[in-house]
Amino acid sequence: MHTYHQEYLLKIDLSKCYENIYTHSLTWALYGKEQSKLELKKSPSHRNPIYIKCDNLDRKVRSINNNETKGIPTGPLASRIVSEVILSSIDEILRSKNYHFKRYVDDYNFYFRNEVDAYEFLPQFQNILYEYKLHINTEKTKLEKYPYQLNQDFTKELKAHNFKNEGYLRYIERLIELHNEGNKGALKYGLNVLGKKRIPSKENKVIFSHLINIMISFPNLSEQIYAIIINNNFSYDIKTEETVNSILIHCIKNKYELETIWLLTVMGFLRMKVDTINLISIINHAEPCATIIVLDYIFKNTLSSDVAIKDAMNNLKLLLINEKSYGEKWLLLYEINRNNWIKGLRKCLDDSPFLKNAYKDNIFFLKVLLCKMTEQTEP
After folding, report:
1. pLDDT tens digits along 129-186
2. Domain interval for residue 286
3. Helix, strand, or coil here: 10?
4. Which of 187, 177, 171 is nearest to 223 (CA)?
5. 145, 172, 195 - which closes a domain
6. Model-level pTM?
7. Alpha helix locations (H) across 232-346?
8. Is residue 155 part of a domain?
9. Residue 199 domain-assigned (yes or no)
């Protein structure tokens, strides 16, 4: 246990994590900082192939942010993966020094036996972060002495909630309050409980709006939100449908890829209409998972003959015609061929025995990927 005989809890938040990420540190995390510096001294033709792949990844990350080396966009799913790679590398350093900690995205909980150890650790941790151009948010740094807030506190409270008398709205409001008070895990725990409940029709509409807001604010909890939605017969009117489409526009515009994917999944389950402008925008963006969901929606609703949609699909074909099966669009290419959505792209799978066999066996990857994308690392 992290807390066994650890009397002090040091809470640390990273300052503007995404804005401060130094893209070269991605190569350092994957290949090693000193090793990377040694490779740079070599001529390009003599560099290690693994280093070259890491360096190319760094270049691609920079390309989505005007070739800047400082900072990555906060919306795209790729940014979350990049930050996780870097922070996982920092985790390994901390583990090698035998520190007791838990990390929730960019929030850390460190456990110490005494106050002196906690305060001595702070500059050491800052030095580790500095190697990756990251910094501690001193305003949110907090040291608590046992008994500090434990998970059992909120679980007991939530278990005692009387849904019949206090209602479901108050329960969700309390979940958000607990989260804002610093109770890590309260939202996830509470939503898992809610996933086993049948929400009464009188609270149906307001609960649905709160669930969508939570999904957009905390995309890592989308799987829990989706479980609640499929377990309840949520009704909606035209105004709700319009509101959800406007939220979808916001997600697409800001390249919130994971939020876009899950919002489309919810809309599909509830048989909500997705506005044509949103369908076209997603196809034009060509993010694999979202585009697959949209193409599935288009063909299930016989919308492929729409002139604007047909033009967007033709443009997508031109974009993919020279794509390789080992490129970043492999999943999109695979599903287009598996479902026969766009003709003329079959040859793109020919250079991959793995995808050819998967195609032959009609394997569906998307469900597994959606689950994997919402997993959080907890050291």
Report:
1. 998 989 999 888 988 887 665 545 788 888 889 998 899 999 999 999 888 887 878 8
2. 276-378
3. strand
4. 187
5. 145
6. 0.65
7. 238-253, 257-269, 276-285, 288-300, 307-320, 330-339
8. no
9. no
Q: How many residues are there in the chain?
A: 379
State how many domains the chain has.
2
Among candidate residues 362, 359, 339, 342, the one with its CA nearest the CA of residue 350: 359
Q: What is the DSSP string of 191-250?
A: HHHHTTS---HHHHHHHHHHHHHHHHH-GGGHHHHHHHHHTS-----HHHHHHHHHHHHH
Place of tokens 């800001």: 254
Q: At 49, which CATH number?
A: 3.30.70
Domain boundary among 106, 127, 145: 145
Report d(CA 367, CA 20) in Å as an integer.
33
165-172's contacts with Cβ under 8 Å and 24+ in sequence apart are 167/203, 168/194, 168/197, 168/199, 168/200, 168/203, 168/207, 169/203, 169/206, 169/207, 169/210, 172/207, 172/210, 172/211, 172/214
Asked if the peptide bond before residue 76 counts as cis, ω within 30 degrees of 0, the response is no
Residue 344's CB is within 10 A of a number of other CB atoms, namely: 10
Identity at 67, one-letter amino acid code: N
Rounded Cα–Cα distance for residues 84 and 375 (Å)? 11
Cβ atoms of 234 and 208 within 8 Å: the answer is yes
Q: Is 44 part of any domain?
A: yes
